[in-house]
Write a structure and sequence with these properties.
This protein is α+β, with helices and mostly antiparallel strands. The chain has helices spanning 12-26, 42-53, 81-94, 104-120, 127-146, 189-192, 204-214, 235-239; strands at 33-37, 57-64, 97-102, 151-153, 158-162, 168-172, 195-196, 248-251, 257-261, 276-277, 288-292, 298-301, 310-318, 329-333, 341-348, 355-359, 371-376, 379-389.
Length: 395
Amino acid sequence: MLPQSLPFVENPRESARNAAAIFAGMNLPIGATVAVAMSGGVDSSAVAALMVEAGYRVFGLTARLYDVAQTERRPGSCCAPDDARDARNVAHHLGIRHYVLDERQAFLREVVQPFIDSWRQAQTPNPCVNCNRSLKFDKLLHTALALGADVLATGHYARLLADDAGQMTLRRARDPAKDQAYFLYPLVPATVQKLRFPLGDMTKPQVRAHAERFGLPTAHKKESMDVCFVGGQRPQDWLQGRMPIEAGKVIDEQGHSVGEHAGLHSVTIGQRHGLKITSKTPDSAPLYVIEKRQDGTVIVGERHRLRVQKLVLADCTWISGRPPQYCAQLQVQVRHRGQPARIEVVDCTADGRTLTLVVRDELYAAARGQAGVLFDGDRVLGGGTISAANAGATL
């Protein structure tokens, strides 16, 4: 039965229907304790309210990940001091306990520094994957369980469903525009059992409607950015002053110098504009970045050289605990908003940590350092970091 003292229970019948729907999807007994990872945004705030409405014992956890200078504007950020304040206000509104974890040093060590190092190594990193892996679904979950929670619920748009054998599987969200399953591929079996994603069957407008119904202080808060710690800047601009910046040569595939670039941090695979190409003529074919090298050299070529026919994934993890079988016909996605491409598994190391894929569909501009995530339909199997792609001169 819902506590009638809650500030958002204006229509008990509607609340009871919502509570029953949430309860059915959580697969938790009455009286269970749910910790909610509260980033200070509308999504996680709505999750906390839905958990309270469903009748669970609820407390909130917020990870403070970095500091913000008073003069620095952070539109659309998350996990900064202001966001911890917003999460605390939501918790107060709901009447639940709220804890703030100081993870600034861990975030700097495990997310920010690897982001910088990856650019220095001529890669294209994905810091959100590292943040999910090492902070949100490691340290945060460990703290939640230590404080007595049965599960950790988050505001991610993804679904966890049991397969025919009763094993939990990670699936894409119902709303393709908000699906975040790509970022969650590092989950492992033991972690999956202790997680819940209550928003996986909802659209963003539905979540905001819940937040408005609950009267949450964050109901109209703007979306957070993918790379929270760059503070509204382009990653390339943020990297200025945080890593050595050296201009370098731009060469064609025959080794001829055709221009220069402002630094590896300013160049991405597939880039066409912004390069100082000096040897082009009016009838020259457009040139794209097809490879970056650690010595600072950038190689350009025509667009067809960006097509990927083979990928090697390293440091792979598998949600089921097992890698896909040899010759498995699956799909790979190499960007959050990228289209999945059909692939075939042609090689896998004995430990399942390195996988080689042949790409059967058109796939362009895959870059070392990006996450390559394997899907079987809407089911996420796992994935790894792209260590080699034949876009350019080498594989």
